[in-house]
Q: What sequence folds into this?
């Protein structure tokens, strides 16, 4: 049996390692990246998912409008994930579909199908900072946030959702991003994102996104029940309420995530 002193030292070391990102490099840049590498590692292996979603748009006057949509996501080994969003309501935008191919390096590919025009439009890189269908989310927010897309700096510890968190600054590498930087809170126990602050090119805080109601699926994968984005400039909000996560549906990239079939997803 270990002497009492050694047992205390071991306990202290385990406690410290539990609340600090593990890396041999002690620079803030390496520590910040290590947090996101670990968060990414814990997400691997989900294969694919489908989920129903309610989107609630609000303005400073308190007026709300609601939309129902479906999301499919496909994990791509050794590269970025694929995402498909299809709107079911309201009737005016029913059948609108958005498709995104993320890549670890290079520019992501994104397409938007609008039933009114019956055309599939490719979204140019310079337009990906624009709002997604009048919501407070930008097109770039919908791309899978691959580790390689950012540089990082560990900013210390904080609290979000009453949980102790790592606080990491990440800076998009994409010159067309609408953000100069983001501050991200990830809880120390599970490495789940709890809050993101978005700063524009003038380094002004423009939006804050908070996550809530995390649940574990398949005994491994944490997913939020709610996401709430507030625009600090105009008071507008977008709330996402997630329902009925379904994993490992057998989706196939060529069949279920193709720009050529966007017109037929509804």
A:
């Amino acid at each position: 049996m270990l002497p009492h002193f050694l047992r205390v030292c071991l306990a202290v070391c385990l406690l410290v390692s539990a609340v600090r990102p593990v890396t041999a490099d002690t620079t803030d840049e390496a520590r910040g990246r290590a947090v996101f590498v670990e968060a990414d590692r814990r997400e691997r292996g989900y294969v694919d998912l489908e989920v129903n979603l309610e989107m609630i748009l609000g303005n400073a006057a308190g007026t709300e409008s609601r939309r129902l949509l479906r999301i499919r996501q496909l994990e791509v080994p050794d590269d970025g994930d694929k995402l498909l969003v299809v709107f079911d309501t309201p009737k005016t935008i029913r059948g609108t579909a958005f498709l995104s191919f993320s890549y670890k390096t290079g520019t992501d590919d994104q397409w938007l199908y609008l039933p009114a025009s019956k055309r599939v439009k490719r979204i140019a890189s310079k337009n990906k900072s624009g709002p997604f269908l009048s919501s407070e989310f930008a097109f770039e927010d919908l791309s899978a946030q691959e580790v390689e897309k950012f540089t990082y700096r560990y900013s210390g510890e904080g609290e979000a959702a009453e949980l102790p968190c790592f606080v990491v600054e990440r800076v998009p590498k994409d010159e067309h991003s609408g953000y100069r930087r983001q501050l991200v809170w990830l809880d120390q126990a599970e490495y789940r994102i709890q809050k993101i602050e978005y700063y524009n090119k003038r380094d002004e805080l423009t939006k804050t996104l908070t996550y809530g109601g995390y649940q574990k699926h398949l005994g491994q994968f944490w997913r939020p029940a709610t996401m709430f984005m507030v625009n600090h400039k105009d008071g507008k909000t977008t709330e996402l309420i997630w329902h009925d996560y379904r994993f490992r549906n057998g989706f196939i990239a060529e069949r279920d995530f193709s720009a050529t079939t966007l017109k037929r997803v509804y």
Summary: Residues 1-18 have pLDDT under 50 and may be disordered. DSSP finds four helices and 15 strands in the chain.
